[in-house]
Each structure stands twice: as C-alpha cells, then as structure tokens.
Amino acid sequence: MARPVQLAPGSLALVLSRQGLQERATEAGDPEEPSGRAVFRAFRRANARCFWNARLARAASRLAFQGWLRRGVLLVHAPPASLQVLRDAWRRRALRPPRGFRIRAVGDVFPVQMNLIAQSQFIPLAEVLCCAVSDMNAAQIVVTQESLLEHLVKHYPGHRVWHLIIQSFWMD
Known about the structure:
There is one protein chain. The protein is of the alpha+beta class. It contains seven helices and six strands; from the N terminus they run ββαααββαββααα. Helix 3 (54-61) crosses helix 4 (80-91).
C-alpha cells in the first residue's frame, strides 16, 4: 500500500466575513462572490503595507495562496517563521483583513491526508476501443486502422502492442 500524501501542511485558515453593504448582499443571495485569489492578494497587500511592522510586512510577502473555501475561508501557506508572525499578529489584533472583509478567526490547518489508490496494469480493451472511437468521432476524425492506432499510441503511451491488437481485430 502506498504511503499517504499530506495535503496543506504548514497552512493557516483565515475565516473571513464581509463588512457593511457587501455583507447584506451576500445574505440576500448575491451570487457575485470574489475569487479566492483576489481576496488573498488583498489580504497580502493589506499586511505588506504595514511598514511600521517589518516582520509582518515580510511575512505577508512570503505568503502563498493555498485555497479558498466557500463561506469565506482563505487558506494560506508560508515558511514556519512567517506563519508564526501571522499568529502573533492575530493574537495582538494587528493582523489586517482584506478590504471589505473582517477576520473572524485564524487557525492552524492540520495536514489532510490522502491515501493514494493504486491502478492496475490491466486496461479493458473494449473500454479503450469504445472511448477512442467516441473521442475520434467527437473530434470528427475518420476512424481508420491507422488513425485509431495513432490515437491509441498518443493517449495510451507505454503500450507497444497496440498495432498487433488492432491488426488482429480489424476486419478488412
């Protein structure tokens, strides 16, 4: 069995809520939610401008966007020292929110583990042929022995016996 893969190690979650008019629009079901990357850039920009707190400004510049979850959860990643600066700034109420938002909570994200699912070496021939012919029809490519062989070699690399299989099944 393969070893689990850790997702999002060394990350912080920032729970954000909209302020003022934007908050009421969201409650009314306004579908126009800002993109996670835009919120991240605004958060990083707001904290990088804190020239009086060089550690916070430097930590903000080292942040990387990890993800954006519905309901306003921003996931960020940074080196451990930078994450600690953000934690300390939150404790001292010095962490600045992105424009139009307020920070409701900040917390460490424990790594999520993903267990890999192994694939077998077996490829069902009928499935492969049906998919190949369907893909070629969708692309309006005439299916001939040669074009089918090209498609199989391109989309299923590493199988050197396609030409033998196709020749044995192809009806002239």
